[in-house]
Amino acid sequence: MRLRSVGLCLALLASLAPSFVVAQGRIIDEGTFSVTRGGVSNTENFRIARIENGAIKATAQVVSAAQRVTSILTVDSLGTPLSYDVTVTEKGAKSISVKAIAGGARLIAKTNDQHGDESMREYPLVSGQSLLVESGLLHQLYFAAMGRKPGSIQIIDPRGARVSSATLSALGLEPVDVGGKSVTGTHYSLTSGSVRRDFWVDPAGRLLRVEIASEHLVAAREELPR
To answer: What is the reported pTM?
Structure first.
């Protein structure tokens, strides 16, 4: 029964994916991050929009000299993942892709690598407490502060094939430099094991800046949110 359930969920994902791509919805935020990690620079372009049934869709493209990452994440009104599609391309060839969809109290993910190998994995989902965050896709931190109270959060990383516990902390108001202008943002941290993600948001919850000290990463918006 479990195998049949998995098959049905993945078939549903395949049928829904095109509609998520086409649907634009009302834009909540869009912009570009200039990212520096260990002295290497790249950009992350993203858009976050409300679509049908109260869901929110986040799309992004990360471009560097080595690779291109494209992603589509759809969540419910609490930020709990509903579906996910991410593809990594290196030198024009697809190196890995992950498609996932929520089914009941779990997220079912299917991974394909450059060798044609396929694997599947399930992750437990807790409504309002499960968050999808992948390394290198910074815009996803928008959902960490979206209507959440500081405390424990479950982080799912489908591309890394792992799930972990994290703590969200609110650290108060601080000045943030965005596009050469100083603005006031609310400072949050999301800590999981040895990884601490510091990020700042404006009064509307839109990301302004991200820092991950353990990865020597600093990302700032090129322009203020509009």
So the answer is: 0.87
The sign of the torsion formed by the CA atoms of 189, 68, 178, 73 equals negative
Q: Which residues span the domain enclosing 98?
A: 2-221
The angle subtended at Cα 38 by Cα 131 and Cα 209, nearest 5°, is 45
Domain assignment present for residue 38? The answer is yes
Total domains present in the chain: 1
Q: Name the pairing type of β-strands 151-157 and 130-132.
A: parallel
Taking the C-alpha atoms of residue 129 and residue 104, their distance in angstroms, rounded to an integer, is 15
Q: List, in order, residues 6 or more apart from 146 with CB less than 8 Å away.
A: 79, 205
Average pLDDT over the chain, rounded to whole?
A: 89
C-alpha of 158 from chain center = 11
Q: Please give the Cα distance from 25 to 11 (Å, whole number).
A: 24
